[in-house]
Amino acid sequence: MTTQKPLLLALATGQASLLDEPVRMLIGGELADAASGATFPTYNPATGAVIANVAAGAAADVDRAVQAARAAFGHPTWAKLTPASRGELLWRLADLIQRDADVLARLETTNNGRPYRNTRNGDLPGIIKHFRYHAGWATKLHGTTVPVSTPNHFVYTVREPMGVCGCIIPWNYPLNMVSWKIAPALAAGNTVILKPAEETPLTALWIAELALEAGFPPGVVNVVTGMGETAGAALVAHPNVDKLAFTGSTAVGRKIVEAAAGNLKRISLELGGKSPNVIFADADVTAAARQAVWAILSNAGQNCCAGSRLFVQRHVADQVLDTVVSTMERLRVGNGLDPETQVGPLVSQEQLSRVSGFVAAGRDAGAELLLGGVRPAGVADGGFFLAPTVFGKVQDEMEIVREEIFGPVVCALEFDDWDELIARANDTPYGLASAIWTRDINKAHRFAQAIQAGTVWINTYNMFDPAAPFGGYKQSGYGREMGEAVYELYTQTKTVWVGLNGVR
Ligand code: ADP
Question: Which numeric CATH code is attached to 5-271+480-492?
Answer without folding.
Answer: 3.40.605.10
